[in-house]
Design brief:
The protein contains 2 helices and 9 strands; from the N terminus they run αβββββαββββ. The protein has 238 residues and is mainly β. The longest helix is centred in the first third of the chain and has 18 residues.
């Protein structure tokens, strides 16, 4: 991300110097942003098998048919942008505008898997080497529970991006109605992905192995799931 930021700064300085001799106006501003909540559901009919392992060599194989369902939900939480722009006249009816903006946006991403319309189509007793699968829990008792909503709350993504927009503005009617068309390039300069994970902690108390679930909030600032550069276009009435 550091190399991307250096490239952006160089481009901004070069562009600003080239415009200083023009009939240029400057503008600074701040605005809130909010995206739309969106969700979609994917369903696919499939067959699968589950096993109930009885010992190291014997298991019961259950065959099922049903729908595998994936629910994906995007929930915007907050967004804001600080921007500055320069605008100069190309002609009486045409203006050129360019600038730079720092954008912050946060959203929650949740993905849930489950099956529905599940039908047992058959079962059979099979023999094989199940020694690597047959395990017993080391816990004699669990002393707590974690609410399901805490485990399935999804992932919170916080992004700070640097954006450079360029735009041509055409005066349609006496500077009261304008049409703007342009493009922008943006790159993330900071990101933080927050999510919950659960592990089991065990302690021996009076000869009994007591276990408890521990909920931990994880943080990933690597930005490995983000694109270094994003391109976009826009058309708007101004």
């Amino acid at each position: 991300m550091k190399n991307n930021l250096n490239l952006f700064i160089f481009g901004i300085v070069f562009f600003a110097q080239s415009l200083l001799g023009q009939n240029t106006t400057f503008n600074l501003g701040y605005r809130f942003e909010s995206g739309l909540h969106s969700e979609y559901v994917e369903k696919s009919n499939s067959e699968w098998t589950n096993y109930s392992i009885l010992n190291d060599s014997t298991a019961i194989e259950y065959s099922y048919n049903g729908n595998e369902v994936i629910e994906v939900k995007y929930t915007p939480k907050f967004g804001s942008e600080i921007y500055g722009s320069m605008k100069f006249d190309i002609s009486k009816y045409l203006k050129f505008r360019a600038g730079v903006a720092v954008n912050y946006f946060a959203l929650n991403y949740k993905q849930i898997y489950y099956t529905e319309d599940e039908v047992l189509t058959g079962f059979d007793t099979i023999t094989s080497d199940f020694s690597g699968y047959y395990t017993e829990s080391d816990c004699d008792v669990y002393i707590n529970e974690i609410p399901v909503e805490e485990i399935n709350k999804g992932r919170d993504l916080h992004i700070v991006s640097l954006k450079v927009p360029v735009e041509l503005i055409f005066n349609v009617y006496k500077d009261k109605l304008n049409i703007g068309a342009g493009a922008f390039i943006s790159t993330p300069i900071y990101s933080d992905l927050l999510y919950n994970s659960v592990y089991v902690e065990s302690n021996e108390v009076d000869g009994e192995n007591q276990c408890k679930y521990v909920l931990v909030e994880q943080s990933d600032k690597s930005g490995s799931d983000l694109e270094n550069f994003n391109l976009g276009i826009n058309v708007a009435f101004i």
